[in-house]
Fold each of these.
Amino acid sequence: MIVELSENAPAIDIQKLIERLKWAGLHVSFVQEGVYRRLAIIGKDIDLKYLANLPLVKKIVPSKQPYKLAGSDFKKERTVINVKGHSIGDGTLTVIAGPCSIESEEQIYACAKIVAENGAKILRGGAFKPRTSPYSFQGLGEEGLIFLQKAAAEYGLLTISEVMDTADIELLTQYADILQVGARNMQNFSLLKRLGQCKKPVFLKRGMSATYKDLLMAAEYILSSGNEQVILCERGIRTFEDYTRNTMDIAAIPILKELSHLPVFADPSHGTGLRNMVLPMSCAAVAAGADGLMIEVHPNPDKAYSDAEQTIGPEAFAILMKKVYSGIANVK
Amino acid sequence: MIVELSENAPAIDIQKLIERLKWAGLHVSFVQEGVYRRLAIIGKDIDLKYLANLPLVKKIVPSKQPYKLAGSDFKKERTVINVKGHSIGDGTLTVIAGPCSIESEEQIYACAKIVAENGAKILRGGAFKPRTSPYSFQGLGEEGLIFLQKAAAEYGLLTISEVMDTADIELLTQYADILQVGARNMQNFSLLKRLGQCKKPVFLKRGMSATYKDLLMAAEYILSSGNEQVILCERGIRTFEDYTRNTMDIAAIPILKELSHLPVFADPSHGTGLRNMVLPMSCAAVAAGADGLMIEVHPNPDKAYSDAEQTIGPEAFAILMKKVYSGIANVK
Amino acid sequence: MIVELSENAPAIDIQKLIERLKWAGLHVSFVQEGVYRRLAIIGKDIDLKYLANLPLVKKIVPSKQPYKLAGSDFKKERTVINVKGHSIGDGTLTVIAGPCSIESEEQIYACAKIVAENGAKILRGGAFKPRTSPYSFQGLGEEGLIFLQKAAAEYGLLTISEVMDTADIELLTQYADILQVGARNMQNFSLLKRLGQCKKPVFLKRGMSATYKDLLMAAEYILSSGNEQVILCERGIRTFEDYTRNTMDIAAIPILKELSHLPVFADPSHGTGLRNMVLPMSCAAVAAGADGLMIEVHPNPDKAYSDAEQTIGPEAFAILMKKVYSGIANVK
Amino acid sequence: MIVELSENAPAIDIQKLIERLKWAGLHVSFVQEGVYRRLAIIGKDIDLKYLANLPLVKKIVPSKQPYKLAGSDFKKERTVINVKGHSIGDGTLTVIAGPCSIESEEQIYACAKIVAENGAKILRGGAFKPRTSPYSFQGLGEEGLIFLQKAAAEYGLLTISEVMDTADIELLTQYADILQVGARNMQNFSLLKRLGQCKKPVFLKRGMSATYKDLLMAAEYILSSGNEQVILCERGIRTFEDYTRNTMDIAAIPILKELSHLPVFADPSHGTGLRNMVLPMSCAAVAAGADGLMIEVHPNPDKAYSDAEQTIGPEAFAILMKKVYSGIANVK
């Protein structure tokens, strides 16, 4: 239930109402946008129709969105996430780039250099890798995170890395500025709940067979556990077309921005699985309104330990950065 | 088999070779691009390795593309289709617009006016409608085509309309400048073969569950029957996501342009089924390299007999045209 | 709208009502099942609520099924189709078998022998083949149909063959007892309408991306054009799983039998594309309530011109026939 | 790499070879089936061709299966799992039944009674529920597990319950005889690795967009971590068909049994999401060769806290048990 509060309702009374509702076992979230103040009240099937008659309450907002906190019915202004001074979702484009896996200190430094020199702000790199085969390279673990953090510091970059297990969250938060949830863990609800208790932004990738609603409900797990800093990411879904690794659902970008206030990124590397499709699909994602891109870059893509076929090299990345930043004025 | 001919091979000898191969029951197509001349030789499992030793032949081009004539291995320069002076696929953007169905003379005139005033060049309108239900409006038939042709003439537009049956091809060619094959008929091979004997360009929409290869093989039916004027169109595929009518596969655009020399259009109206997604997905398609767009426009979208939810009105169309033409310089 | 007629309503009055409704431009179908008599009235948005007050009318049956004639709301007893004395859909199992393509007189005779000796009643064989590539074997045409008919006559079998074009319907009806519509033509509405004017049963295969509703609406095209003899066939849908040619949707069988009164067959050859999966999937289809099976059989499967990997040989077919007939008592 | 050992190779020498390979950092698994003894050697790209020349080695078995331990190339005899005296995968049919969620002590006792009286051997019941919405009932936690264990003991049943987090494994092993991994966690690789160190059988459900290979690689994570007791379960995949909750891929059953030696179950409750489809799809699964079924049963299905529409009641379950056990002789 979403409640719009009267413009002249005293803050103290609102506070009391919230306390009373929480005391009754309900989940209550409050948002203020200019003169508008709203409550999302979620919980047991209590009859709350009497609320409509309170002087505090202007009206009950009809809403069919089951993702109460992630939904645009509750919060109309876009969420802007500030990571150490860098703003995500404020109308500018944010590019995250780096290798699939952190392979060595040298490699991640070389990546960081490419990323920084071309104007991107956030360095990605996996230390715990969700590989289909148990016999594939599983990542360097904490050692990789140390390399990542040092390389990022050297080049003035922020960091993002994937977390696969509730047991690893604490470790990750020491090294990464943003915690990534991979597609395969999008409905790992234990992980989502714990990330909701964390202070770092969460980069939530859409599962391979997740609907928009599934993705927003996954975000809701994080939001309702207390963490409002969630970034959504379209990274391709599974369809019958097997020429590409996945089918990148570009429409997800404007639709998620309509349904929700959260920033929406696109990952054309996983979205297509094809190196030479990263550029046109980056352009398409930006044209469709993406707040940011996540790109797999490696100094020597053919030698990458993982995802080589979808990783681009320094020259291609330089071209991409020029294209997406020159084009942005026209497409927003 | 694709054969690159020697640069100094006399035309008369090439002609003789072609005749001999045809006499042997093979399908032979010839293409000249600057100094490059190539043959595509298709047919029975005859041992043609001896060709490599002919002085006429420079080399056998290794090609795994089963769509010999539609493929970029055979023809490297892009196909440009000239329709009464308007060029399609020459690097500029072509917009086709109009209603789903021709409903009345008045309606199609009103549509033509909107289309022309905003700078689009081709008027669409269905006279034979492939409706899921036999009880839904099935189109005005020939009467509709007469209206379409007159309205287009009035506003200096070209016309396109859908053909659903080999028996209707002759009728359609009298009224439409381009013949459309709908998604449901993409593998109606009888229809494709007959359209191959036709002199008009064919606008071939991707089937709802067609792979890139399926689409290019459908084009190959038309090309191998003698008609080289084929335009491909991405219009969304069926996936598990049901928020949208279809999932628009934007990656199909750059990939089809890589695999083939044929122009590639995008239809964001069917691709999403959602009126307010037509603009961002048009931008995305153009950013990804589309040669053109097909847009459903109606003077009063809510009153459209069919596809109302995905049809835009005059104002939205005016905005779309401005956006896609202003942005194009940056994305090509 | 479905109307249940009073049990004592005189036939003459019902006839008059039907005529009046038809005169008003409505489509009216009548069905009698024991003492129950029902009308399906379809058409323009005329207010027919007054019908509820007629003494002829017992009640208006609430129905959300858009496939009025194919739906179980209108006709509750199962449709049994009689083909020259053989009953389809009467609770017994009907097996259709034969090669993908008719390749020669000898081949189809050899097939007919295998089919007949193992107790199947209907011989399949394609004379016009819907091949993905224009360069693949396209079928023997009328010559093939002559062979099919003669071979079937020799072994006391009925025949079924695929029709791909309205122009071929007349030819096909001379040689085949049942006309097949392939998956790629399931929404070739021109073809469906013409088949509705035909006296032969139509075997309608589910399209690769057709929902249950799409399939039943395709059947509705045939039924509403006057032909009540429609057999539905599940033959696999396109999904992300590429180990099999298609994903066979066994649930379609009991669901289509619940939604409709039409017989439902299964085609495990196309459904899986894998020779050694034809037996277990035939058993599964029968266990789920299929009225019949369509199986690709060839005297020498490895030499089949088309669909070799999914075609079984004489020994495997003999085992299959024994299994499905021994098991049937337990699964119906 | 799979190595078949010489029949007369001394056990002591084999042991030495295994030790040497392990010392070199390779993963080595050994299997004996009658006189046949095989090694699966997995790991770094070491040149192992010299092994072919050892007297111990009979031959190198060519295998393209990436799931070395789960694959039928390594182990040809079917894996039979013994749970406190009950055999799974031995050719007989095992039925697991019970509610989606454990709701109360009374409810799970009532369920256990129904399950036991109809001859099923294993009681299911979720204590930690993976719900799409954070606001839906999340399960009773440990309290629920206590109820489950007591109810099962009362009626002589075994228990199975879902584990969602590595942190919960220890708790689950105290109460459940089999640990279930849900579809959403099929590629939660951290969870899979830890379950590999566990002594209890793992019931691994196929992810909603997992290929056969993905599922077998997920099983490989468990096997390669030391736990050989894995049961696979087909529970439906996501497709465009939305009449059913999922599309049940019955072909997965015989195919997984061909590719692997592990037992294969089917879950028609989740597979269809429709109460009245549970019976025909159970019959189909058994006919296709399933080793077992998992069925959602509740004393009062309409009142179930979760999955009510796909849960059957006591009468329907009684009919189902009779059907599947009477039919089994014919379909195996």
Note: Chain B touches chain D through four residues (CB under 8 Å).
Amino acid sequence: MATVKNRRILLTRRPIGEPSEADFAFSEVELQEPQPSQMLLRTLWLSLDPYMRGRMSLRKSYAPPVEVGDVMVGGTVSEVVASNLDKFAPGDIVEGRTDWQEYALSDGTGIRKVDPSLAPISTALGVLGMPGMTAYFGLLNVGQPKPGETVVVSAAAGAVGAIVGQIAKIKGCRVIGIAGAPEKCEYTVKELGFDACISHREPDLSRQLEQACPQGIDIYFENVGGKVFEAILPLLNDFARVPVCGLIAHYNDTELPPGPNQVPLFLRTILSRRMTVRGFVSSDFADQRPAFFNEMGSWVRDQEIKYREDIAEGLENAPRAFQKLFRGENFGKLLVHVAEPSAH
Amino acid sequence: MATVKNRRILLTRRPIGEPSEADFAFSEVELQEPQPSQMLLRTLWLSLDPYMRGRMSLRKSYAPPVEVGDVMVGGTVSEVVASNLDKFAPGDIVEGRTDWQEYALSDGTGIRKVDPSLAPISTALGVLGMPGMTAYFGLLNVGQPKPGETVVVSAAAGAVGAIVGQIAKIKGCRVIGIAGAPEKCEYTVKELGFDACISHREPDLSRQLEQACPQGIDIYFENVGGKVFEAILPLLNDFARVPVCGLIAHYNDTELPPGPNQVPLFLRTILSRRMTVRGFVSSDFADQRPAFFNEMGSWVRDQEIKYREDIAEGLENAPRAFQKLFRGENFGKLLVHVAEPSAH
């Protein structure tokens, strides 16, 4: 095994604005043997997610940044190649944070087994993984949907948004999506059962939103920010809830947008409508994971919740694929297919 | 009784910017006899509160505006002069919303009796009334203070802010006030027991706040908005709570402030620190009033919570006194002393 190379993708500089392929570099190192308290994992799938843009930046956030020169962080589904740990055996399929690389050594921290008989293993990075938890925890805990309420979700065809809308439908809500392309809108309505979907590229977004939400908006699940947020704000009802999950329209901002400063309008709306605006990340609700796996597992099995994947082939294509997130070019959960499991 | 005049203060036009005395007019009408389902109330105290600015405007809010030509709305403490209601008898002292006038007819809706033996009756408009409830409900429900946390409250010497800080001290928090004058700051620290208080007129407000909050801010009780809010935002901790109670710096705004637009920064802070920002008004927590009267009553009786009143003499001076709220000129709960109770 000492001759095997581990190919890894490093962060080589902090991007200013939109990340480019030049912010990353390939690096090959010799694979180390697992220590007595370690196992060796071979990456099968790498998840690409908007939060990674935050890790590339020094801006204060809920997790420390990746150091320049280090391997990019990321969630993966892997196969256990060799294990000195009692809980894991060669051939096991596992999910964890083992980063943008073909192999990883792990002491098992944060690693969970994935049952390949339940669903395709890639779903452990999507509907049955972090994005699914983000949708489930955020909508149910922060959004608190009630039957008959109107729920609007942005990035509606994305990994989180598509799940948010489907859970809201299960909970008896009227669901309006906002997406960036006609085919994404069509998908959320025809395939996922949303009541309507509006493209944020429409010049009359505000008017279309108003028409789609005759009873106003009770929950706005925020994934984007920017002008979508501005169009939503006037339509929020008394006691509306705004789970703030992502702000992809702003992740590449190099400066604040021009005025006027709309913070006073935002605060006044929060006060006069007694709204709740709350940021969250899925790890804040770790104690609810058993409920998630149980409920989401049966929804996926019964096809009450559908999902779609957007797959890039080969680790070397991860940097280019990652850029699609910020251009709205991915359609479904963005994944990199790194390798096939070995035959057993 | 048919010869008695009722002097009232009407809204004569909607103010643009800061209210002026010319937005109000005195009007005398002949006092009507109470109907069989009514009682006649004589106003003793009128409360002047920032929310009234909202009622003068057509801007969408949680309560309908006062119509031009109508009597200005307001909370009062009154004496029952005559009553055809079983529950109220002449001489009773009551609190309710009977507006800017010397007399009012009431069918008893929203009227509660005040026990003059418990505390001065004017407190039914302050520490033991709406402002006290606002502080109590907002801090406990939205702020959820825990021992050792840092609480910052703006308008710290005002009717609500002074109570918020004292409850937070009772709950074991470190309390920092923000006020507009050195004597107000001194009052909150020396009289009310705040740990520190900073004038928002200091040029280095941000630096002083940072020094006063070495552990960051866990709860910011928002009464003002504007540049105080901007100075607070960078200091808020993970999982911080921001009860939005008032925005007095903005009530007279005629346009939004110049850019840049800081909404993206605000949203990013909410997300990355998983903050909760929630607007509320005291009536949202009507079911908790018994707990309020019980607990706040004993705090006031035991002088664990102190209060201060700023009293204008005579109903005719209400419009001029009202302006003090927006100039930061009141020092304590602003009241108009309209009449003395009759001797019994």
Note: The mean pLDDT of chain A is 95.
